[in-house]
Write a structure and sequence with these properties.
This protein is an alpha+beta fold and about 300 residues long. It is built from 4 helices and 15 strands. The longest helix is centred in the C-terminal third of the chain and has 18 residues.
Length: about 300
């Protein structure tokens, strides 16, 4: 896949049992919230239900639920979030809307994450700050994964499974070690300093299409409900058949016919890297795969 490769994150980062979510566990929340995602392709909509793991990835789950609850992943200004980077094994989404008039960028239209999220009235999902006094939030997400120095007190990290969701961290180029941020510890021992690169997820996540796997550099936080497995397989098959029917002359490289390589700049609105001139190349589907909506079924 033609994108920045994330280098191995030093395990010298101080470890914690679980760096926790800002949300307190109350009678109104459960250990396993559930959400529904509706994805449309070529005139058909597919409904997928997910189980989230609050105990294993508290910050990640709270962050994702805050975006869902505020409608971040739903239609805005007439545009829907789309799969902005397509591979056979993973689909990446959550950062760009599909805009049919944006031919130069393959239909991608950046959804202004920092402007949108900083305006939310409820900021309980915040977990990373620029200062020890926690007065300057980054609005980004702590990396709850093994290569970020995380150790679990109980249970295990989730491994990727078919349909599972993982938060996505883009490399920061020459800025990857340049900035320190502060993360609150759920064990009550104050805050800890760490590098921004490993605490910089925003709204982007991946949908895993492999049956199994290991990933120590991204946080898998949700699994596909058994009742939705056939639905996702139907969507996957629909895309494959579309490629076969419309790009048969490309043979083994048919996926390249279905996608367009697009180079875009990123870091818009991010005070750490906004003017760094960073770019990344995505394989954008020429026929959009869009997320119609995500809603919470159970908190």
């Amino acid at each position: 896949m033609k994108k920045f490769l994330k280098r191995a994150i030093s395990t010298a980062i101080a470890t914690v049992s679980v760096v926790g979510g800002a949300f307190a566990f109350t009678a109104c929340t459960t250990n396993n919230p559930e959400v529904e995602m509706r994805i449309a392709f070529n005139g058909t909509t597919y409904t997928l239900e997910y189980k989230l793991y609050r105990k294993l990835a508290p910050n990640t789950v709270n962050h994702f639920l805050a975006l869902v609850e505020n409608g971040y992943y739903n239609e805005q200004d007439g545009q829907n979030i789309c799969i902005h980077d397509y591979t056979d094994s993973k689909w990446y989404t959550g950062g760009y809307s599909y805009n049919a008039n944006s031919e130069e960028d393959g239909g991608l239209s950046y959804r202004d994450y920092f402007s949108i999220v900083s305006a939310y009235s409820n900021q309980d999902f915040l977990s990373v700050w620029k200062d020890t006094a926690k007065t300057m939030p980054t609005y980004t997400l702590y990396g709850e994964f093994p290569d970020n120095g995380m150790e679990m007190a109980k249970g295990n990290f989730l491994s990727p499974t078919f349909g599972s969701l993982a938060m996505y961290y883009e490399a920061k180029g020459d800025n990857e070690d340049a900035f320190d941020v502060y993360v609150e510890r759920v064990d009550g021992n104050g805050i800890r300093k760490t590098k921004y690169e490993t605490n910089s997820a925003t709204s982007m996540f991946s949908i895993n299409l492999s049956s199994s796997g290991t990933d120590k550099s991204h946080c898998t936080f949700a699994t596909l409900q058994e009742s939705s497995v056939e639905e996702l397989k139907a969507l996957q098959d629909a895309v494959k058949k579309y490629i076969e029917n419309n790009f048969s002359d490309v043979d083994e490289e048919s996926v390249e016919g279905f996608t367009k390589a697009v180079e875009v700049s990123y870091g818009q609105g991010d005070p750490f890297i906004e003017n760094a001139g960073l770019t990344v190349e995505y394989d954008v589907p020429t026929t959009p795969i869009v997320i119609k909506s995500i809603k919470v079924l159970k908190y």
